[in-house]
Amino acid sequence: MEALKDTMAGITTLFQDRMSGFEAELHNAPAGSSTSRDCLVKEFISFKKFILEMLDCLQKQIDLLALGLDNLEMRGRRKMVLLHGVTEQAKEDTAQVAAEVVRCHLKLTDFTVGDIRRCHRMGRQAGTSKPRPILCKLRDVNLRDSIWFAKTRLKGTGITVSEFLTRTRHRLFMCAREKFGVNNCWSKQGLIYVLGSDGSRHRVNSMSDLENIMQVSDDVVSPIASAQSSSPSPSPAPKKARRAAARK
């Protein structure tokens, strides 16, 4: 963080000094001298290029810092899971409700309320019939993994289990689902994966990763589509043959 502040302060000071110098040279340049103005223009273009390169470097540092903070936040969520679709009752004991779901539906019969460190419904009550998800922070990571790997037993119950992703990763995950489809996107240990059109698995860390995967998928699909469009279409069957097939 200190390095980022120092870089920003250095760029600001350099920008102010150089712009003051350009302004002074512009005022002192003779009115009819084109040579001085040409030199000033060249220096300005060079300085502009330098500033843009420095801003790009600064943006990369900010991205790395944001990624580090996101990783740190996700690490703090390793013991958490979200339970969706669990019926909500007034004045319920949320921890007891979650424990009942784990025991009855996930078949983890040894699970108790004591295995839950913190448990509550997410968001405010909206007055709708849709229940709010339950956030559970569990005793340890192994217990969380047991629930995660048993989630296939929830099929057909209307209840699902998901990871408690950070806001950045959740936004990225939803965007990936929109682009690649629900069945081709998943998360594991806080990491997001997508299945490309070529059948290969890709790990997605940022929007730029998602755009690159989409570009590769488009490059793969385009030749196939053009080949299919250029191939001759089969000639239609004779009318008598179609009628015979219809009777069968």
**Could you state the order of secondary-structure elements as H and E?**
HHEHEEHEHEEEHH
Alpha-beta classification: alpha+beta
Q: Which segments are poorly predicted (pLDDT under 50) over 5 or more consecutive residues?
A: 234-248
- Terminus-to-terminus distance: 76 Å
**CATH topology grouping of the largest domain:** Alpha-Beta Plaits
Tell me the number of helical segments per DSSP (H or I, 4 or more residues long): 7
CATH class descriptor of the largest domain:
Alpha Beta
According to DSSP, the number of beta strands is: 7
**How large, in whole angstroms, is the Cα Rg?**
30 Å
Label the CATH architecture of the largest domain: 2-Layer Sandwich
User: What strand order characterises the main sheet?
Assistant: 2-3-1-4
Task: Please give the share of residues in helix.
Answer: 40-55%
Tell me the CATH superfamily of the largest domain: L1 transposable element, RRM domain
Net shape: elongated
- Biggest β-sheet strands, sense, barrel: 4 strands, antiparallel
Beta content comes to 5-15%
Notes on the protein architecture:
By secondary structure, the protein is α+β, with helices and mostly antiparallel strands. It has 3 domains: 2-75; 80-164, Alpha-Beta Plaits (2-Layer Sandwich), CATH 3.30.70.1820; 166-221, no CATH class. It is 55% helix and 13% strand. It has 7 helices and 7 strands, in the order H-H-E-H-E-E-H-E-H-E-E-E-H-H. The protein has a 4-stranded antiparallel sheet. A hairpin with a 5-residue loop joins strand 6 (191-195) and strand 7. Helix 1 (2-28) runs antiparallel to helix 2. The protein is elongated and about 90 Å long. The protein starts with a helix and ends with a helix.
